[in-house]
Amino acid sequence: MADTLDVAVVVGSLRRESFTRRFAQALASIAPPALELEAVPIGDLALYNADLEDSPPQPWVTFRERIRRCDGVLFATPEYNRSVPGVLKNAIDVGSRPYGKSAWDRKPALVVSASPGAIGGFGANHHLRQSLVFLNMPAMQQPEAYIGGVDKLLDANTGFANDATRKFATSIMIAFEDWIRRHR
Description:
Helix content is 38%, strand content 15%. It is built from five helices and five strands, in the order βαβαβαβαβα.
């Protein structure tokens, strides 16, 4: 068996039953056995303020250490106002500081955006990708994961409501395992 890969799952929604969170959980349920996915909470991260770097809040320290330990990051984001939610941007900022000590550096990434709307969080997906370029995170290009109509694609048990969605999600996770192995 191939060695296991530690994947940090960063969900850009704080709502417990958000469609994005549920989609990320469904992805984890069908991931290849070599991928060990763990949700990394971001709701307790204080807003980034460089004045706090002399004595960073413990949630910042814990978050940064967790990201440094992982082999790759799965970002799952809803779209707010054609961009990423503020809580996700804050997590990116916390993990990227202090300057020159980014926890994100060279971590292979997968970006999945999900929305009940038709375009599946396209704006959020691409805004997040812009940040990943600066963070030096190789973001997987294909298959693209803009999940439109997500409210109809999940069942009541945090799984997929149909085989076509499950098959597509499986292809994403297989490709992500390969992407991490090539870029770690």
